[in-house]
Amino acid sequence: MIFLIIGSVFGYVVLVNGSSVKGFEIVRWEQENEKLLSQNKELKEQVENLKSLTQMEERIKNLNLTSVAEIEYLTKAEIVAVVK
What we know:
elongated
């Protein structure tokens, strides 16, 4: 009879301990999820900022490029030489 009581108490302790450990893991994973969601939001805002027209215009000006006055297109040559 005493072994049955001791076994039941031991089983209960193991069960409660396992449940509490899983509860702590769930809280940790929820905190990690919130952190990653926050980082994701910040990165999306950075992407939108970098894609904005004013940012692109500023970056183009910093490259010191000249504007194109006239575009000349190349035409396909009719004769093509092949060497073996």
